[in-house]
C-alpha cells in the first residue's frame, strides 16, 4: 500500500483547494490504516469530504468561467460513482478490495488529477483575479 501525504510542493496556489487536498489525503491514509471495523465509517467520511471538495472546485469554475468545466465536472462525477461502487463492496464484506482501492488507485488518481484538471482550474482562476 502506498501512502501519500500532502506537502507544499503539491500546492496549486489556491488556499481552499490546498486545504481540501490535505484533508483528502489525510482521510485516504486514515482509510488505509483503519481496522476492518473502522473502515466503513472512515470511507463514508472520505466520500462526504470528496463531495464537498468537488463542489467547492465546481463553484470556483462557475465563478471564473473555466473553459474545461464540463471535463473537470465529468471527472468528479466519475470518481464519486467509483467511490460509491467501492463503498458497496465494503457493505458486502469485500474490505480488502476497498482498502486496495483507497490505498493504490485513489492516490494515483489524485496525483494525476491535481497535476492536470485541478492545476489548470487554479491557474485559470488566478489569471481571472490578476
Ligand atoms: Fe481537488
Ligand atoms: Fe478536481
Automatic annotation (TrEMBL):
<dbReference type="GO" id="GO:0005344">
    <property type="term" value="F:oxygen carrier activity"/>
</dbReference>
<dbReference type="InterPro" id="IPR050669">
    <property type="entry name" value="Hemerythrin"/>
</dbReference>
<keyword id="KW-0813">Transport</keyword>
<keyword id="KW-0561">Oxygen transport</keyword>
<keyword id="KW-0479">Metal-binding</keyword>
<keyword id="KW-0408">Iron</keyword>
<dbReference type="InterPro" id="IPR035938">
    <property type="entry name" value="Hemerythrin-like_sf"/>
</dbReference>
<dbReference type="InterPro" id="IPR012827">
    <property type="entry name" value="Hemerythrin_metal-bd"/>
</dbReference>
<dbReference type="GO" id="GO:0046872">
    <property type="term" value="F:metal ion binding"/>
</dbReference>
<dbReference type="Pfam" id="PF01814">
    <property type="entry name" value="Hemerythrin"/>
</dbReference>
<protein>
    <submittedName>
        <fullName>Hemerythrin</fullName>
    </submittedName>
</protein>
<feature type="domain" description="Hemerythrin-like">
    <location>
        <begin position="13"/>
        <end position="94"/>
    </location>
</feature>
<dbReference type="InterPro" id="IPR012312">
    <property type="entry name" value="Hemerythrin-like"/>
</dbReference>
<dbReference type="InterPro" id="IPR016131">
    <property type="entry name" value="Haemerythrin_Fe_BS"/>
</dbReference>
<comment type="similarity">
    <text>Belongs to the hemerythrin family.</text>
</comment>
